[in-house]
Amino acid sequence: MRVLAAMSGGVDSAVAAARAAEAGHDVTGVHLALSKNPQTYRSGARGCCTLEDSRDARRAADIIGIPFYVWDMSERFHNDVVEDFLSEYSEGRTPNPCLRCNEKIKFEAVLDRAMALGFDAVVTGHYAQLTDGILRRAVDPGKDQSYVLAVLTRQQLAHSMFPLGDTPKEEVREEAERRGLAVARKPDSHDICFIADGDTRGFLNRKLGEKPGEFIDATTGEAVGEHRGSHQFTIGQRHGLGLGRPAADGKPRYVLSITPVDNTVTVGPKEALQVDTIHTKTPVWLDGQARTAAFDCEVQLRAHGEVYPAHVTPTDTGLTARLAKPAYGVAAGQALVVYQPQDPDDVVIASGTITATESPALVEAATNAN
Length: 370
Prior knowledge:
alpha/beta; Rossmann fold; SH3 type barrels; Elongation Factor Tu (Ef-tu), domain 3; 3 domains; six-stranded antiparallel barrel; five-stranded parallel β-sheet; 28% strand; globular; disulfide bond; ATP-binding; ATP binding
């Protein structure tokens, strides 16, 4: 097959490209330039978005012996990822920019262009298994990326390759060393690539501006402090609140909800963060079987987060998941990913964007108040 290898400049994508070439595919490497001015994004050799990364990707392609190109995706990245990130925070939601980048850039814009150029598939260094169009967890649970790939459609998965899903990360690094790839011990990328200094709050303030508002105590309804913009916070946040008045019981307060309309941030005890029901919109069915009846499964609410047994009910607009045990600090804008436990590796069934949650603690408090 003619295969386009997306090469970020890190070890994973380099080894994935090398494996595809070794398997006999006609491989072409491509690095995605995500900023007109790379210095405005994160600096340092971390595996994505920088000038160093572009050079590392080119050197890896030379060693593998494949053609290499740089594609300018900066405008699409800015519109679909950066602007989406800002818009979501301004609406009181907490987005996952890496998930959005996979959806809109790596497996929509890139795949569309690759198919138009006559390629059969796109290969990446993601840790997930793909067999006969079915997405499964990677064998390395610590590196599994099936959660951030669960936004892909079956059509996109049909033209995708993930060669690393069956290999632990340390073995990938050892293989890179044997292949003579200079990125073998390059650190993984963890930060948001378009926030150069890692200061998310400062980035949001610069882009969205400061807008003073109040913290409201969920228990008393009283204002207990002031902030400089509700977009600075996310559900479950404890540190950096700067509250002027301590809670009556002396316990720490957490962000429970964000209301951009009046720019208020409601805070309260940790127990009030409990969530037992989650609602989503726009479900994507990855196994080709859109359900209409309720079913038992497992759900994951964050990348590398805890897995919860759940009873999921399809609705007219999305999915409703009732958890067997409460989760804490679930934010709208994140993804709920549905798994069917199977031996040896879980199968990804569906995903949906979280729109609302229900808290048993808040329901009980309201009942007692009445």
